[in-house]
TrEMBL record:
Residues 1-27 are annotated as: Disordered. Residues 1-11 have a biased composition (Acidic residues). It comes from Jimgerdemannia flammicorona. Gene3D superfamilies: Coagulation Factor XIII, subunit A, domain 1 (2.70.50.30). The keyword DNA damage does not apply. One of its GO terms (cellular component) is cytosol. This is Immunoglobulin E-set. PANTHER family: LD16419P (PTHR10980:SF3), RHO GDP-DISSOCIATION INHIBITOR (PTHR10980). Keywords: Cytoplasm, GTPase activation. One of its GO terms (molecular function) is GTPase activator activity. It comes from the Eukaryota. Pfam families: Rho_GDI.
Length: 186
């Protein structure tokens, strides 16, 4: 399996034209604005500077058990790069992500993805996840349902580059992974 080349502009963050981000405020500023809210609850360990911690990515496929990638395991991102997901042609599927926000408010978290087959871009996803404050419990985001392509030409190996970014252009995680579309489950 060859490593695909991805241009930086393929996964460039995007701005929603009607959205006007407000002034960036620290968690301390929010606490002083409204003392009834406890935004620091679940703010995370002091030795972990990450604001967004992606704990799990799952692929929900209709009629099958979820394919789950546990990102608390350090080698998980390498495993997903080397071992492709398998999706049956014509099946409905969607991605689901579990994540925690800690230390600060994250504005306009987005998921960006580029899918290539034989080095040619065949799909690009830009999905707004939203703005979140620190919390002790993880957030869950289910993406839109998609249908795997059908037909003989769809049977192939696909390579993907994904990342999570926010309005401040902070990249929280980036990884490569792959999937195969097959005629039947193997």
């Amino acid at each position: 399996m060859a490593n695909q080349q991805y241009d930086d502009d393929e996964l460039a963050p995007f701005q929603t034209t009607s959205y006007k981000p407000g002034e960036k405020k620290s968690i301390q500023k929010y606490q002083t604005l409204n003392t009834n809210d406890n935004l620091s609850q679940g703010s995370g360990p002091s030795d972990d500077s990450h604001c967004v911690v992606i704990s799990q990515i799952a692929l929900e496929v209709a009629g099958c058990s979820d394919i789950i990638l546990d990102l608390s395991i350090p080698e998980a991102l390498q495993t997903i790069k080397d071992k492709p997901f398998m999706i049956k042609k014509g099946m409905e599927y969607r991605m689901k992500v579990l994540f925690k926000i800690q230390h600060d408010v994250v504005s306009s978290l987005k998921y960006l993805q580029v899918v290539k087959r034989c080095g040619i871009q065949v799909d690009k996803t830009k999905e707004m996840i939203g703005s979140y404050g620190p919390a002790s419990e993880p957030y869950e985001k289910k993406f839109m349902i998609e249908e795997a392509p059908t037909g003989m030409l769809a049977h192939s190996h696909y390579e993907v580059k994904s990342k999570f970014v926010d309005d401040d252009n902070v990249m929280h995680i980036e990884w490569n992974w792959s999937f195969d579309i097959k005629k039947d489950w193997e």
